[in-house]
Amino acid sequence: MKLAILGGPGAGKGTQAKILCGYLEIPCVDMGQILRRAIASGTELGRQAEPYVEKGELVPDEILIQFVRDRLLEPDVSNGWLLDGYPRTAFQAEELDFLLEDLGQKLRWAIYLNVSDDVLMTRSLKRSRADDTPQIIRRRIEVFHQRTVPILEYYEPRGHLLDINGDHPPEQVSQDILDVLVRQ
Ligand code: AP5
User: Fold this and answer.
1) CA of 97 to the centre of ligand 1 (A)
2) How much distance in Å is there from the Cα of 13 to the middle of ligand 1?
């Protein structure tokens, strides 16, 4: 099963990714965590990403597209994967499809965790990461509407969009997703 999970900051992507990857026994590629770890350890990817992540901006497409291309060629993801927080722009979504075509693979679902901006803000503020200040979260929510919401229109007509109410308790959200995944 090849899945992507989309949503604003604090929508519950990481929470649901962990549950789904455990249940489906597939590896999770968590883009935010990869970038944060790369920044903390000062790798080349981290140095490139840091100025964007610390302001709540998106890391430039070309950096992440290349990263995902390399990551999906690794052996642990040959039988399935879940991308957490990728794609986040129309360009990333298109490039992912080109890459998957090259690899003879197909994305099954882009799971969208649909949550209001107020809930995104409240949940994100409960955490204490360096990029979870009110000002940066506000910017991440803005960027989410400008750059990520439009890609729902890319997936919807292709029959890949799974729009899920993310404002229920985590267990119910995963149940709602799994109900669709196992029905297919
Ligand atoms: P990333 O780490 O992905 O940040 P984000 O999208 O802002 O998402 P979060 O990790 O903040 O939230 P989440 O949706 O995973 O929610 P969580 O499960 O933790 O990315 C960080 C940065 O990296 C970006 O700002 C950008 O700069 C860069 N980046 C990443 N991907 C990129 C890309 N593709 N292109 C360019 N740049 C990129 O839950 C949040 C909280 O809510 C938790 O406390 C949780 O316990 C709680 N919670 C979760 N679900 C529920 C529920 N159903 N009910 C109640 N509480 C819940």
Assistant:
1) 23
2) 6
CATH code for the domain of 73? 3.40.50.300
Q: Of 35, 120, 133, which is best to mutate to test ligand 1, by the most ligand atoms within 8 angstroms of its C-beta? A: 35
What is the number of domains present in the chain?
A: 1
Q: Which domain holds residue 69?
A: 2-183
Asked if residue 86 lies in contact with residue 4, where contact means CB atoms within 8 angstroms, the answer is: yes
In 10 A of CB 4, how many CB atoms? 28
Mutate to test the pocket of ligand 1, among 21, 59, 117, 145 (most ligand atoms within 8 A of CB): 59
Q: What is the 3-state secondary structure (H, E, C) of 30-60?
A: EHHHHHHHHHHHCCHHHHHHHHHHCCCCCCC
pLDDT, tens digit, 9 for 90 and up, residues 58-116: 999 999 999 999 999 999 998 899 999 999 999 999 999 999 999 999 999 999 999 99
pLDDT digits (tens, 9 = 90+) for 11-24: 999 999 999 999 99
